Amino acid sequence: MKEYIKMQNVNYEIKGREILKNINLSLNGKKVTSLIGPNGSGKTTLGKLATGIYKCSSGKIKLDNQYISKLELSEIGEKIGYLFQNPDKQIFTPTVYEELAFSLKYKGIEKKEIDRRIDYILEVFNMEHMKKATTFFLSRGEKQRLALAAVVINNPEYLVLDEPTTGLDTHRKEKLSILIESLRGKIGVLLISHDIKFIEKHSDRILEMKEGRLKND
Predict the structure, then answer these.
(1) How far is residue 13's CA from residue 17's CA, in Å, rounded to a whole number?
(2) Sheet containing 3-14: which strands, arranged edge to edge?
């Protein structure tokens, strides 16, 4: 197994309340792993720990064989992309084009290459008509697609997708299915979702959480 994320005896608590308890987990860098469980079981917290958004209270986390505590957020962002459950927390620029271009400009990529990548990702997500659209007026489903496109455009080595089907109709969900299948075997994906049919369709492995612990694998 190509181990990309490894958690060793990881605990996370906030204000004295235990959210995650003694998590030991290895995630394959080329497989789709799904994380299921009731609301409040710790799924989103685990995803945010894996991407460095949260810091564990105790234990160790490795990302691509490096301790995540020793990496800058920018270094983590080069390796792993995170899709927030609520796209409004992720989108912060006024237009679709600017949202997709922001991280690429930060990396110093030339405008010609930025435009090429944006045109390609807009085609993949069937968003060509939205290139100049104002993000404020997008629907929930459109914002979800834009947020995911902004993550994928950076070519991450691993993706954490938190409830990616929320707000998507059947057609858009099928588009997302095609995208996930196109990534299969190329990068790893941690899919956090309540959408059991979607999970069963795409998962190589399903993990179940309950009350902050991993219960089934």
Answers:
(1) 5
(2) 17-28, 3-14, 58-63, 66-67
Backbone angles phi, psi at 216, to 5 degrees: -140, 150
Beta bridge partners of 188: 158
Q: Per-residue pLDDT tens for 41-99?
A: 999 999 999 999 999 999 999 999 999 999 988 889 889 999 988 888 899 999 999 99
Residues 6 or more apart whose Cβ sits within 8 Å of residue 105: 114
Q: pTM for the whole thing?
A: 0.88
Q: Which residues pair with 192 in a beta bridge?
A: 35, 162
Do residues 34 and 203 lie in contact, with contact meaning Cβ atoms separated by under 8 Å?
Answer: yes
Are 33 and 191 contacting, i.e. CB atoms less than 8 angstroms apart?
yes
- Residue 16 is predicted with a pLDDT of 86
Amino acid at 38: P
Number of neighbours of residue 204 by Cβ within 10 angstroms:
14
Q: How far apart are CA 76 and CA 116, in angstroms?
A: 25
Residue 47 structure tokens: 């995803």
Domains annotated on the chain, with CATH = 32-55+74-216 (3.40.50.300)
